[in-house]
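Long-time lurker. I teach an intro course on protein structure, and each term I like to show students one example going from raw sequence to a predicted 3D structure in token notation. This year I'd like something fresh instead of my usual example. Would anyone be willing to generate the tokens for the chain below so I can use it in lecture? Attribution to the forum is fine with me.
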Amino acid sequence: MSNANRKTRLEAHLKKVNRNLQRFNIKLFFYMGLVGFIFVWGFAGTFNSDSMGSFISGAILGAIGGAIIWLFFGGIPSLIALWILRDK
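-- Reply from a regular --
Happy to contribute to a lecture. Here you go:
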């Protein structure tokens, strides 16, 4: 095996490893946003739990706030990154 052939195989392998790492980071980012969504939802529901009606309204407000947080910090950046990394 020539040295040039070995070098091109190594470069191809490193490109594959780099792409896999980027996809892993995107998935991690996506799930971190999802955890933030659940946390905000539970947080708002817990502190409005003096009566059942306010608990439900707090859960609804928490779901809306959490969804907004998830979109801006998890969903939309993940989709943009996947679009950038798509196979051409």
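Some talking points for your students: Residues 3-84 form one domain. The chain has one domain: 3-84.
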